[in-house]
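Data availability (excerpt). The following record was deposited with the supplementary files.
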Amino acid sequence: MMARASSEPKFDLVVFGEFFSDMIFYRLPGRPRFGEESKTDSFLVSPGGGLSTTAIAASRLGTATGIVTRVGADADSLPTWGEMVREKLDTTACEYRKDHPTALTVCIAYNTDRMMVTHDPINRRFEDLLEKEEVQRKLAKARHVHVACALRRPAKWLPILRRLRDQGLTISADFGWNPEISVNQLISIIRHCDFIFPNEHEALAITGTTSAIAALEKLHDWVRIPVVKVGVKGALLMKDGEVYRQPSLPFPVVDATGAGDAFDGGFLHAFLRGSNWDDCLRAGNICGSLAASQPGLQGLPGPQEFHRWLTAMRKSGAKAGTNRLKTGKAKTAGMKRK
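Predicted structure:
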């Protein structure tokens, strides 16, 4: 059986998104080139995609987490799906398809960059999962719903996001950037979100701006609290016309795949525990930095390591002074629902 037995559980967090088995090659001796073979002793098979990394990052820190995804007939034999179950993620309402294999990605990590090749016909029309009654019931049991998948067919998202907001849930999204979706279509979706988590490249593409701060300000016109991840420089957040910023941890990057999704999981864990915005950013940066310092999900911290780093970052921040920047934007209603 793919799904665990469940007696109507409640969740702090439910993550909706695509699942991948990742085959990760890292510590390559040189940049890969077409027509050449590159060899490495460093290889790992790991759960992949925004769903896996965000959910596991939050769950390891103690957030009661469920997932909604689609896997193939081979899922029960895959070590990657077995790891999802061992991580105590609730897998009820996930769809088990016999007509396609589980999505597979080959990741090539070199220095701080990476490339990926993916086979995922199983994820076509992925948004159809939103229409299933068991999926809608599971989403409604959460305090917070996070969407971690590519944005296609925006009209499919609007009814369910409106319904979740009407039920009092908070919502976040990490869609990435799909140039086939117009900015107006994207805005129609993210207006229903409390947070979005683009990286700097995605934020600039979405807003047509030339700096992370300018992108943050533009995004704040559309979403209550935008967060922009700026890689090794950390992350920025805007609320009520004020920018909060926190640095990343100074670790060398071994595998950047999934670091941004790990940030999302740490940030949401802190948010759901009522942390202030600086600590939410710190929590995200801890998880993102540690995730990038090792391949796959090996670097994601448990509670003790997380709290040790959080204490150290608070002390460092107190010595450095404020990490806030006033902008010219007018103050807004913040998290108050419209």
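Summary of structural features: The domain at 12-324 is CATH 3.40.1190.20 (UDP-N-acetylmuramoyl-L-alanine:D-glutamate ligase).
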